[in-house]
Amino acid sequence: MSKKERIKSMFDLLKSLLMAFLFGVFGIISYAFIHAKELNAIELVVILFAALINMLIISVIAKNIIYKLDELERID
Fold first, then answer.
1. Burial of 11 (0-12, 13-18, 19+ CB in 10 A)
2. Which of 26, 61, 64, 75 shows the greatest Cβ crowding within 10 Å of its Cβ?
């Protein structure tokens, strides 16, 4: 496997992970909206913490995608 193919496969993996975590954030937010009246303070803090962790992971994945795209551009 050449370096270019390896970067492309890593890029595809990162795109898949990005979509999975993005859907996770949407799921957490929709759960919070559906059960907004029934949530106590602890559940609300856990939901906010989970959403923030997911958003942090999304930003790291997005930075890695940008890095891989730049690396792929340098090879071509």
1. middle
2. 61
Position 23: which residue type? F
As a residue count, the chain comes to: 76
Q: Could you tell me the CA-to-CA distances from 26 to 55, 66, 71 in Å, in that order?
A: 11, 23, 31
pTM, two decimals, is 0.83
Asked if 18 and 60 count as a contact pair (C-beta separation under 8 A), the reply is no
pLDDT in tens, 12-55: 999 999 999 999 999 999 999 999 999 999 999 999 999 999 99
Q: Strands, DSSP E only, in 1-76?
A: none
Residue carrying the six token digits 């929709």: 30
